[in-house]
Each structure stands twice: as C-alpha cells, then as structure tokens.
Structure prediction request, 342 residues.
Amino acid sequence: MNNKKRKEILFKIYSENFKFIKDNSSLKDNFDKGFGCFCPICLNYFVKEDLEAKVNPLTLEHNPPQSLGGKSSILTCKKCNSDAGHKIDNEILTALLEIDALHFKPNSEIKTQFYNESTDGKGVNAKIKIEEDGKFLINIDTKNNNPKIHKKFFDSEVQEYNSPLFINDISKSGWSKKLNFTFDKPNKTNERLASISLLKIAYLMAFEKLGHLYIFNKNTEIIREQIKHPEKEIIKNPFWITYQFPDNLLGVNIITKPRELRSILVIFNLKTKSDSYKISICLPGFSEGDEKIYENIKDILCQGNGFQNIEVNNYINSEYNIKDIEKTFRLVQFWESFVEKQ
Prediction:
C-alpha cells in the first residue's frame, strides 16, 4: 500500500471517530468545521485537503520511530512530526544503541578513541564492531587520525613469545604481537530527551488505540506540553515503571490498583539490531486526580524497595476498537462503572 492510500485510510478512521464524538456531544452545536481530525500533539484541526497541503500537511507518523521497529500507524502534522523527530526521536535510538554497545551485544558498534602511554593523552579514533557471531572487529582509519599519534600508537605494540610447553592450544604458540590500550565508553545520550521520546511513543500509542476520546481528556494536556517543549522540565517525576510485564499486556492497558497508581499503562517493545527492549509508560487516566500519577509513582515506587502489587486490566487491548464507531464511548462508561470503583 502506498503512502497516499495509507494516509487516506487513517484520515477516514480518525475523522469518523471525531465525527461520532462531535455528533453525540455538546460539540454538535458549536463546531462547524468540515469532516476531519486533530493532530494529537498540537491539537490543530485538519480536513482532507490537508493531506496534500503545501504548508504543514498531515503526515504519516512512524510510532515508535521506524529505526526502532515502528510502523506508520497514525497521522500528525508535518510540523509536529519534524519537530519531535529533530528534538527527541533520535535520542532514544542513541540511548539504546549505547546500551547495546556497552554490553558488547552482537551487531552493535562503538565509535570511540583508543589511548595508551604512547598517545600522550590524545586519542586515536577507532570503531569497534561486534559481529553476529560475537567476533570483535576493530577499525582504525588513518584518514581520520593525526598521522604522528597514529604511528606512535602502532609503534607501541610489543612482541610476546608463547612456549608450546606452557599453553594448551598449540596453534597459539610462538611469537605474537600485543597492543595495549584503553577506550572511552560511548556517552552521547541526553537521558532526559530520551525519556521524553518514550513518553511521546506511549501517548501516540494511546491515541492510536483510543482516538480523540483520549486526547480530549484534560489530564493529557501536561503530556502534550512536555512533548512540544522537551527542553523544559514540565513533568519532573518518573513516568515509567520498571516491572517486567508479560507479553500478553503489550499495548494499552489500565492500572486499576492501587488507587494511587490508577492510570493508562502503555507497554511496547523497541527493537535495535542487537536486542529488544520492553518499555512501560504510565499516562493519566480520565478521573479527577489522575493527573497526579507521576507524583504518586515517585512517592510509591521510588521509595524503599520500590515494590508494589499492581493490578492491570486489559479491557482496552481485548475489547476496544476505534473502528467500531458505535462503541466509541464504551471506554468512558467502563472507566466510570468499573475502574473508578476499584
């Protein structure tokens, strides 16, 4: 399916979702714009002509980022898509690639500098690549290094003799060359921006599943503000949970107990060439007071041993489908009749 067709299908799904909400709420009498939908980040309204507009059209949003296994599952405006991509999306990729490299996982690589006594504190630019079978490949490019430092570094190698009388592997006997060095660990990640990228992924996954019903929730305003202004510390407390939830909860769920942690729980995998990382992010629910979820995470899960029995309901994953227009308000009804009474 080409991108144009994909955009049209997504536009129809989310526009019908909004139309049903509008036609069955107070918006019916005071919202007179044409058939369309909202960008979930800036909340600007777009009609079908905006799919191909020359200025700030609706665009396919890969969520999670395509580099981490995401697919084009929703629409955001070009400005929000570009701003987030430039400011925060690359940060989570950088962070996970650094984790891969620091643990020497297969298919990872480290760009670093080598040091030893011969380099006088100056580094030799190098790249370490760990292949699929675990073998290490080291590349030191002469073009990207000071020739004098490069020569001193390689001249510092020493020869060693391994007697066949004292080693188990006879193939390793005889003379060999040895080059000692240390290297810097990769440390380019901005952890704050990487964490906001995770928040954005979770928020857009909630929108993908729940549609406009969720983004019209007043408790989500703080999420959008943090995504739009990643340089500001708008949310000052943790919004992630480090529990290892089972795979059957991948997607959008509800934490029902304890009451203080009641929230929308979004669980997703991010995939690099080396590994897969399961992430769990909390988003505010629909009730008054649910916007305090991040204060409660800090007070409950970041104190003592940080353990708390958590009950998770998967009604959203198993029962809720944005394409089933007639059931659009079922989530709010479920929240009021079941979640709030827990």
Notes: The chain has a mean pLDDT of 90. Residues 69 and 102 are 21 Å apart (CA to CA). Residues 3-99+189-341 form one domain.
